[in-house]
Design brief:
Strand content: 5-15%
Number of helices: 6
Distance between the termini: 58 Å
Largest sheet: 2 strands, antiparallel
Strand order of the largest sheet: 1-2
Radius of gyration: 26 Å
Order of helices and strands: HHHEHHHE
Number of domains: 1
């Protein structure tokens, strides 16, 4: 008899191709049994989070505008055609750098960070709220892109009525939340 024959062997109940539903009451996503579901976030923290995220872009664009104005005024102050042209071209060059930089920051915050930070942009993280799917699972890159780019556009089409909708909705969902089956909950 070998020395390994006395070691107990674990027999697995795994059957290829068959994934059971698990114990009764178990859900693969969402709220684990016996725990409290996440509380819906209030409108106030959502608005402040949105404003914080908008402030980030405003700072970047504001710096760009300031630099462009200084360059344009500086070029015009030379009282020469060449100085004005160079000042105007320099200002346009600043816009060609600042606007794409602001878009990159926006995409980074609204898509990449939302997925990596469990549904939180910088503003949402500061306000302790997060985006989750209706079933409680985290959102992916496609979800973040559709909700935060396409969905925001849809919600703002008619005088931002899609955003205002959350004030009157029982689940506090905006149009983009309803369309893409998401909700904003307390983190």
């Amino acid at each position: 008899m070998s020395e390994y024959s006395s070691i107990p062997v674990h027999v697995s109940s795994y059957q290829p191709g068959s994934y059971g539903s698990g114990p009764s009451g178990y859900q693969s996503y969402g709220t684990p049994p016996g725990s409290v579901p996440p509380q819906l976030a209030g409108i106030g923290p959502r608005i402040v989070a949105y404003l914080i995220d908008a402030l980030l872009l405003s700072i970047i664009l504001g710096i760009g505008y300031f630099i462009a104005i200084i360059l344009a005024i500086g070029g015009a102050a030379t009282n020469t055609r060449e100085g004005s042209d160079i000042g105007g071209l320099a200002a346009a060059g600043v816009f060609l750098i600042i606007v794409p930089a602001a878009l990159i920051v926006w995409f980074y915050n609204q898509i990449y960070l939302v997925v990596k930070n469990n549904g939180q942009t910088i503003g949402k993280k500061l306000m302790k709220v997060r985006i989750a799917k209706d079933d409680g699972s985290p959102i992916g890159y496609g979800d973040a892109f559709l909700r935060n780019l396409v969905g925001y556009w849809i919600s703002s089409l008619v005088c931002h009525l899609g955003f205002i909708w959350a004030l009157f909705d029982q689940q506090r969902q905006t149009w983009h939340d309803k369309i893409f089956k998401t909700r904003v909950v307390s983190a």
